[in-house]
From TrEMBL, chain A:
Entry-linked PROSITE patterns: SBP_BACTERIAL_5, TAT
UniProt KW Protein biosynthesis keyword: no
Signal sequence extent: none
Chief site of localization: periplasm
Annotated CDD domains: PBP2_NikA_DppA_OppA_like_17 (cd08503)
The organism of origin for this protein: Sinorhizobium chiapasense
Record's keyword annotation contains Signal: yes
Family membership noted in the UniProt record: Belongs to the bacterial solute-binding protein 5 family.
Localization in the cell: Periplasm
Keywords: Signal, Transport
Protein's name according to its UniProt entry: ABC transporter substrate-binding protein
Residue ranges constituting the Solute-binding protein family domain according to the UniProt record: 99-447
TrEMBL record, chain B:
Cellular location(s): Cell membrane
Pfam families hit by this protein: BPD_transp_1 (PF00528), BPD_transp_1_N (PF19300)
Name by which UniProt lists this protein: ABC transporter permease
Recorded superkingdom: Bacteria
Transmembrane segments: 53-76, 151-171, 183-209, 229-248, 287-313, 333-359
Keywords on record: Cell membrane, Membrane, Transmembrane, Transmembrane helix, Transport
Keyword Membrane on entry: yes
Organism: Sinorhizobium chiapasense
Amino acid sequence: MSDYKDYLTRQVMLGKMNRREFLGRAAAFGIAASTAGTLFATSAAAQEPKRGGHLKLGLEGAAATDSRDPAKALSQFMFVVGRNWGDMLVESHPTTGAPVPALAESWEPSADAATWTFTIRKGVKFHDGKELTVDDVIKTLQRHTDDKSESGALGVMKSITGIKADGDKLVLTLTEGNADLPLLLSDYHLIIQPNGGLDNPDAMIGTGPYKVASFEPGVRATFEKNADDWRTDRGYVDSIELIAMNDATARIAALSSGQVHYINRVDPKTVALLKRAPTVEILNTSGRGHYVFIMHCNTAPFDNNDLRMALKFAMDRETMVQRILGGYGKVGNDFPINDTYALFPEGIEQRAYDPDKAAFHYKKSGHSGPVLLRTSDVAFPGAVDAAVLYQESAKKAGIEIEVKREPGDGYWTNVWNVQPFSTSYWGGRPTQDQMYSTAYLSNADWNDTRFQRPDFDKLLLEARSELDEAKRKDMYRTMAMMVRDEGGLILPMFNDFVNAATKQVKGYVHDIGNDMSNGYVATRVWLDA
Amino acid sequence: MMESGPMTGPVPTDGTAGEPPRSADLSGVPAKPNPTGEIGGTFWRRFVFRRPLAALILQRLGLSVGLLFAVSLMIFGGIEALPGDFATTYLGQSATPQAVENIRKDLGLDRPWSERYLNWLGGAVQGDFGTSWASKNSVSEQIGNRLGNSLFLAFFAALISVPLAVGLGMLAVQFRNRMPDKIINVISLAAISLPEFFIGYLLIMFFAVQWGVATFPATVYASMSFTERLSAIALPVATLVLVVLAHMMRMTRAAILNVMSSAYVETAELKGLSTFRIIARHAAPNAVAPVINVIALNLAYLVVGVVVVEVVFVYPGMGQYMVDAVTVRDMPVVQACGLIFAAFYIFLNMAADILAILANPRLRHPR
């Protein structure tokens, strides 16, 4: 009940529910009208953002090697830094994941979705006082699509072949139709910089709600409010301080002693302890990130679909979510999409732990002897424990799994995407198309399951340029079934993003897009004295 | 005054009791005859004889340069041997072959390692450590900040721990095998037995979280005032003091006790001097050499070995900087840090030897 109350309150705070709807739903769940009224009053009062104050965040993931250039932003820390000072053309909606206007006011696709016209917002000023023009946007996109670019968005951008201005508008031409193009432009590397950042990519000058006051890589970044911000529904605090805290215990100590207002990356193992502190609130958000066990479909013995099925049925997903994620996550269904994606294919039966079926398929595969699984704790937190849990659940189906612990250093170079059976992690992508294109298209750079199916590829390309949503959803369902029943992916769980804040922090938006309120945490919350 | 005069002389009757353990090495080095026996050799021998201290320093400096080259070569080789190069490690799981290729070409990683090493070395001998591959910042500038922070922390840790350790060591000798000695021993041993991160966490838990009297995290930055800085480093300094105390304290105690068994101390005792006076005026000066060596080692540790403490307290020092760089194989930074660390060790050891010789003039004229 209190969970539901929390949920309702949150919905109200997000502005997703009006008073009538709120009272109706509260009544349906037996919350007395008077209580419900008070609840709405308190949450509605809390909804009124307070301005001012100095917000301090203790974040994991900073290094002395961090680059100021948004094209090269990789760490969690720089992700938040970029969100504070810059804007993209498009943002994603915090709860639906749909594209919403940012520096692009609106957009229009051609019928084949291969040409897109964007209207660029007027009257927006960069931090240095210069007004944003369509030319800045073009230069930015050109910098990120350049073949010589070191941009992290290069993979996303490579289908864009034409970037030009049409008067005040931006026209993008693609090699093939892509209905998801606006969402691709919400990639966090694609911060619009004056003259595209060609003069000085490291200047950290953008159109965001905060100006960079100081930045010491791997140590600390401070921000001051941008008085000329083009939006009023963000940037509530006067100043922000991001402190690099790579040690999990240090983050927890800093939060519980009140030295910072917010920390990221709370270890599920310590959540229970942290919850005891009366001033602390745990903020967990469903995400698209998933922990996986990957088999190469083209390498013996995993080239046998019966063996793959046996290994899929031998996985106890519920236990994994409880033990490895401490309950902060959801079970997976062996395809890399969950209900946080738009056009999620609903109604696919959840695969459950079934030693009998596993044993049946195992026998049918004709395989005997141990199956070698390589793992390391860098694959995902608790990966080695997860592998051992898996070993136990598979034993009951008569399948012997040999767990080999690999060194963390070089795991991504030597084991992942190289060895036939290993543990790994995926961060999810803004769209289903992008997720599948990145890792399941036959010739994808990161096809880490060696899933090569011409019919799948064909369907993926068709869906990409399909503007009819119902048809598209149907195609995604077929693709999900292919990966689920024939692919080399065992996906036991989607992990929640687990962060924590002091109770002073209000207005936290549980954004499904990515961790830390999709990086916008500092620009969206306010401090309640 | 009269009674102490003849006793302060550094001549133990048995000839070995007061001698620092490293004296043999020291005397061996400068006296090594030049095998060619030419004029230069003769000049060097005379120089060694007339100015033994200067000769020692010169020799050590020469040796240091050679050692630094060796260190740089080892670091370079070590990083080469690690799996993955800068391009793949830096981009991690989000590396596209195109981006990896671009970075490799940009940094010249496609060229052989010997060529890259020599290029780097060429810059380094001219004092140019280049720019970080990852952040494109000047390495020298970055190290300037980080080294300053590390030295700041180490300085205050040393300022407290060295006098404290020596004082406690002398105290322990005075009350040898009695209660104060035992208490000092147990506490310092307990402190050294706990890993430094554990001590750090305990201090954080009590002083920052429970009682809220100390500043945490210990992040220091440019715009901080001196007193703010002092308050920020209180907990890490306390941790470091606890960690290095026992080593120095016990060496002081052992060295003094060693001297205490020699004949001239016995004479002093028979003359009826107070225990404190014997320790402070007669025993301690002759026990200085080994103590200096231990102090030098601990000082070096305070600068180069405190990565864990830096991580726990979120302190932006050199150790953290180097670890970040190693993680992504940022060669210019790793090399520069490695060289600076090596230079610290070499310099502090040299200083220890020189001080040992100053404390024991016999070592100046080795036979």
